[in-house]
């Protein structure tokens, strides 16, 4: 039920975003940046989705805990998320790991990342804490989850999505009764339990939690004093609450933001190169599952000031064109042919280049006569003239990072080694 005066509950919430993850399965893509700072969708970073969900839901107090290689993430947050005003009861705190509690420890786990910042978060006097992971792609109205939390008198409400039982071992799995009260929480079980009435489906945690603030702070202080705890929400705090308190599951299908009548709920963990490539390329579909053009639920980000994309030359074999593709501002397609690709800001593609199924990050330059297929190209990479990728699997694997599904990640050190 809404707060007093029919105010949305989100007005009384603070979003705490955990954005310290390394994202090691993205390999060289996270050599210089944390996973939440990885580019996505032509203009955005991964973290922009959780932050945009919070703002669009009406949450105007946000804290972000950073740790691993946080410079590019912090710079992005400072440039793109600096519109919060204290005089409107808004706040935006960036909280790098800084050994504030102990001079020996950085953030030991997800729970410790919040615990170490209680003295910063508590004075905001937020009634609720909405705890978010900063590394997933989805659209969700957290107001609906807050309302369920209050209506069911929960100590913690956990955002959940349905996954095939055969894939459920990669998640924290929740076993519920007929009223969505959680009976057990198992972190990445070998034999996941199924949902009531759905033997082939398991209920997986999204890493999204709603707490009453005072309850959360008391639990974190208890956990911090436990020498046997790893100070992680999924491994320690949540199982303890399930056993000793009242934990409730919130189904993502109830709060997923959709822009059409599609009944599917879009959520992606772009934690591998194959998943990252596929999620970006899917955006080139005529009607993609994730709608970036929905103005009622925008994805906020740092918008660089750039000129429009430009397409030049109109000769046979040397025509600047892009088909079934997304091309960001500042790109110049100079006599190159682009198909089913996503180009971020400021990409240059030179004459006679043929590019297909490519995710090309900002300010990369594609040399003349290149043929690139099924690739991810990191920011600022200079692709030399005549390079061919995607036609000889063995040669690709020797030169670049090639996945089992045949996607090649290319960064500048790999290019430099070609001429060494």
TrEMBL record:
SUPFAM superfamilies: Nucleotide-diphospho-sugar transferases (SSF53448), Trimeric LpxA-like enzymes (SSF51161)
Uppermost EC category: transferase
Record bears the keyword Nucleotide-binding: yes
Domain Nucleotidyl transferase, first and last residues per copy: 15-284
Database matches in CDD domains: ADP_Glucose_PP, LbH_G1P_AT_C
Residues under site feature: Could play a key role in the communication between the regulatory and the substrate sites: 67, 106
Annotated Glucose-1-phosphate adenylyltransferase/Bifunctional protein GlmU-like C-terminal hexapeptide domain residues: 307-410
Alphabetized GO MF terms: ATP binding; glucose-1-phosphate adenylyltransferase activity
Pathway assigned to this chain's UniProt record: Glycan biosynthesis; glycogen biosynthesis
Residues involved in alpha-D-glucose 1-phosphate binding: 107, 172, 187-188, 205
Documented EC number(s): 2.7.7.27
GO biological process: glycogen biosynthetic process
PANTHER family (alphabetical): GLUCOSE-1-PHOSPHATE ADENYLYLTRANSFERASE, GLUCOSE-1-PHOSPHATE ADENYLYLTRANSFERASE-RELATED
Oligomeric and partner information: Homotetramer.
UniProt name for this protein: Glucose-1-phosphate adenylyltransferase
Organism per entry: Bradyrhizobium lablabi
């Amino acid at each position: 039920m809404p707060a007093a005066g029919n105010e949305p509950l989100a007005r009384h919430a603070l979003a705490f975003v955990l954005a310290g993850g390394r994202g090691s399965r993205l390999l060289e893509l996270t050599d210089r940046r944390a996973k939440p700072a990885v580019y996505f969708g032509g203009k955005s970073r991964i973290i922009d989705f959780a932050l945009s969900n919070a703002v669009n839901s009406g949450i105007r107090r946000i804290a972000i805990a950073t740790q691993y290689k946080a410079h590019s993430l912090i710079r992005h947050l400072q440039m793109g998320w600096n519109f919060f005003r204290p005089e409107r009861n808004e706040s935006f705190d960036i909280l790098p790991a800084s050994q504030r509690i102990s001079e020996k420890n950085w953030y030991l786990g997800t729970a410790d990342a919040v615990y170490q910042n209680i003295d910063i978060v508590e004075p905001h006097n937020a009634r609720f804490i909405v705890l978010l992971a900063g590394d997933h792609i989805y659209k969700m109205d957290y107001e609906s989850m807050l309302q369920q939390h209050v209506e069911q008198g929960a100590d913690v409400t956990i955002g959940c999505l349905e996954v095939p039982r055969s894939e459920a071992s990669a998640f924290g799995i929740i076993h519920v009764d007929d009223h969505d009260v959680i009976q057990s929480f198992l972190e990445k079980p070998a034999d996941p339990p199924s949902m009531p009435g759905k033997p082939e489906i398991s209920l997986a945690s999204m890493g999204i939690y709603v707490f009453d603030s005072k309850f959360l702070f008391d639990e974190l202080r208890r956990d911090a004093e436990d020498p046997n705890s790893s100070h992680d929400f999924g491994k320690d705090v949540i199982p303890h609450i399930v056993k000793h308190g009242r934990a409730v599951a919130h189904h993502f299908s109830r709060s997923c933001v959709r822009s059409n009548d599609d009944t599917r709920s879009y959520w992606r963990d772009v934690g591998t190169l194959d998943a990252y490539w596929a999620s970006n390329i899917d955006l080139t579909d005529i009607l993609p599952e994730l709608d970036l053009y929905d103005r009622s639920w925008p994805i906020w980000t740092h918008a660089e000031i750039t000129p429009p994309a430009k397409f030049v030359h109109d000769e046979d074999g040397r025509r600047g064109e892009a088909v079934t593709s997304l091309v960001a501002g500042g790109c110049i397609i100079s006599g190159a042919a682009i198909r089913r690709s996503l180009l971020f800001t400021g990409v240059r593609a030179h004459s006679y280049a043929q590019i297909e199924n490519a995710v090309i990050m900002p300010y990369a330059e594609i040399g003349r006569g290149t043929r690139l297929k099924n690739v991810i190209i990191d920011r600022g990479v200079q692709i030399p003239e005549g390079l061919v990728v995607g036609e000889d699997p063995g040669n690709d694997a020797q030169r670049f990072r090639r996945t089992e599904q045949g996607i090649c990640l290319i960064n500048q050190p790999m290019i430099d080694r070609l001429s060494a």
